[in-house]
Every structure is written in C-alpha cells, then in structure tokens.
Amino acid sequence: MNRDPRLPDSPDTIVVFSDLNCSFAHLAVYRLHEARRRLGLEGRLWFDHRCFPLELFNRTVNERPGVDSEVSVVGALDPGAGWRLWQGPDWTYPVTMLPPLEAVQAAKAQSLHASEQLDLALRRAFWAEGRCISLRHEILDVAASTGAVDVEALAEALDDGRARRAVMDQFETARHGRVDCSPHVFLYDGTDVANPGVRARWVNGDFGVGFPVIEADDPTVYTDLLARAAELICETAA
C-alpha cells in the first residue's frame, strides 16, 4: 500500500506545506520553531518544508496590496515573528517565490536542519527585512547568514536546477492530494491541521481588495502538535 505523499517519511518529522509569501505561513513557521524550542525537542524533531506555491495555484503574483493588508492583522498575533510593511519601490517587490522555494528544497540534500534554517531565514528576510528573496544573490546571502547551509553547494544546486522537479511534484501533490492551504501541517500518523489555530475571514472584498479579520487564534495548537509528534517518536521506538 502506497503511503500518503503528504505525510512525513518518519515520525520525527513534521511536514509543512506553505508558501514563503504567505503571512499565515510566516506566523505558523515561527510558532512551530518556538514550540519546538520551548518543549526541548530541538535536535529530535525536524520540519520538512514542502511547497504550496500560491502563484501557481492562482496563476498570478501574490499581490502586494493583499499582502500589506495582512501584515498588521496577522503580525499582531505574534510580533516576535518579525514584520514590516514593504519599504522599497514597487519594482523591487518579489514577483515570484519559486527560486527561494526551490532553494529550500535543494538544501534538503545537505540536511533537514539546513533546509529548515534556510526557510526560516528567508521568511524573516522577506517579512521583517524587506529583501527581494526572488534574487539569486539574496538567497545565497540569506543562506550564508544561517551558519547551517553550505552556500557553495546550494549555489550549484540552484544553477543546475536539480530541486526544481521537487517543487513541481509537491505542487501536484498539494493540488490533487487534499492540501487545503498555506500553511497545512501533517504528522506521521496522518494528523493534519490547516492554518493551525487561526480562523479568519475577509471583509469588504477578497484578498487584495478587502482586509482580513481574525475570528479565532489558539497558539496552543502548536504545543499539541509537537507533543503528539514526540509521542509518535516514542511509540515507534518502543
């Protein structure tokens, strides 16, 4: 029987489908890292980032007005994640997130640790520092700042496109395999939570026209998810 392609390959891993240009995903990834640290699970539990490329689903760039409308609303849920309105000229705003998504996949050849640290650093570079992470040199500069990524190896992987297939395969899995949104988290036992802990609706128009209203936010869901993942590690080791 084929294993569900949305699920982790091992119990010590949590799969996170997301886009880098998604405020709800930035919040979720930050909270996952914080919960792992708080529970003392660093070095025991890993995040396997997979692609939910909004630009491919929507067949358009993730428009800046929509993204800007989310920053103060979603950012207020956890300011520690790092947030700032885009300060550069409009023409420096990223038109695609496929190159940095590909970089995160390429870094997995080094380790999940390298990949998850690059993912986290790229999110902070975009959301908190206003950097155009579509650009090759920005991706490599961010990678160097992590201290966890072999930048020369990553550059080679980006230049020959070896991780591009992974991006498209994950898009197909997300499109046809019941991945609901960015972010959507999956555990080894099939537990899954879309946009963990947060329920939102849009007022006065959809994304890019109206603005989001947060109807519920329960950050304890991250503690529950990581605690369950830790239980799975123990259960499979027994």
From TrEMBL:
InterPro entries: DSBA-like_thioredoxin_dom, Thioredoxin-like_sf. The lineage of its organism: Bacteria, Bacillati, Actinomycetota, Actinomycetes, Streptosporangiales. Residues 104-191 form the DSBA-like thioredoxin domain. This is DSBA-like thioredoxin domain-containing protein. It comes from Microbispora catharanthi. GO terms for molecular function: oxidoreductase activity. Signal peptide: none annotated.
